[in-house]
Amino acid sequence: MDLGLRGRIALVTGASKGIGKAIARGLAAEGASVALAARTQSELETTAAAIHAETGSPTFAFPADLTRSEDADRLVAAVVERFGRLDILVNNAGAARGGVIERLTDEDWEAALQLKFLGYVRCVRAALPHMRRQGKGRVVNLIGNDGVKPSYWEIAPGAANAAGQNFTLSMAGQWGKENITFVAVNPGPVRTERWDGLVRAMARDMHISLEEAGKLAPRSIPIGRIAEPEEVADLVVFLASDRASFINGTMIEIDGGQQKPLMDSLRNG
Length: 269
Ligand SMILES: NC(=O)c1ccc[n+]([C@@H]2O[C@H](COP(=O)([O-])OP(=O)(O)OC[C@H]3O[C@@H](n4cnc5c(N)ncnc54)[C@H](OP(=O)(O)O)[C@@H]3O)[C@@H](O)[C@H]2O)c1
What we know:
Layout: E1 9-13, H1 18-29, E2 33-38, H2 41-55, E3 59-63, H3 69-83, E4 88-91, H4 106-116, H5 118-134, E5 137-142, H6 155-175, E6 180-187, H7 193-206, H8 210-219, H9 229-240, E7 250-254, H10 260-268
Parallel strand pairs: 1-2, 1-4, 2-3, 4-5, 5-6, 6-7
């Protein structure tokens, strides 16, 4: 299937590693020009150069800390200056501490919303004027299945994700008439550095070994394993394309059918 992404201009946040890197690579492999954002300049530039070498598509690395509004504004302005337009925004830069209510401080809760929710709001706000001027735009928000499948151990990410999901659907309601469409992708556990950190925290909080903690999530997923970043990227690349043009204002879980209550009961057990 030709996704028709050749020549499209995409911005992927949190693109230096993990799921964002796989998405940036997937879009570039389909012929899109891809801007990549994250905080650590050296890692970002290495990733952008590797994707360009592998795919031949133009890439552009722009360091930005998306907890800051001015960075989101500068990022989007730089992408439009470099490529002339912005067709696709993939909001992906996010992180929030897992853990139970007894361990989470006010600062943890605020940090969870600051990047994972407000970071997405900031980038959408910066991109909208350009997409309106173009008469078209696509936003794919990488969120997380704990926004719709709650777990007591993921309450801070879950709250930030639920906010992001509400935001995605609300934006779709407002901007569809201008041909700017929004969709949320809700992964379950995906094999990235962030997941490794969550497993370490689970082991610490539950006083179990790393090996045991690593088995909890796969046991809660009927398929019996966690996802690879490329599996999430394939879905996002399709959703970013015009082939998915009527998919708007909705959310897609990509979690192998994970059952969070089962995961919680395994933790309790
Ligand atoms: N992995 C999972 O199991 C999983 C499950 C569900 C949902 N998700 C969601 O999927 C997304 C990607 O997760 P991942 O596991 O691929 O994460 P990851 O491997 O930790 O990568 C995070 C990316 O975001 C960048 N980043 C972090 N803080 C940033 C900031 N303040 N401003 C700009 N960029 C920032 C990082 O680079 P720098 O540190 O250099 O900035 C990196 O490029 C996140 O939104 C996450 O919540 C992940």
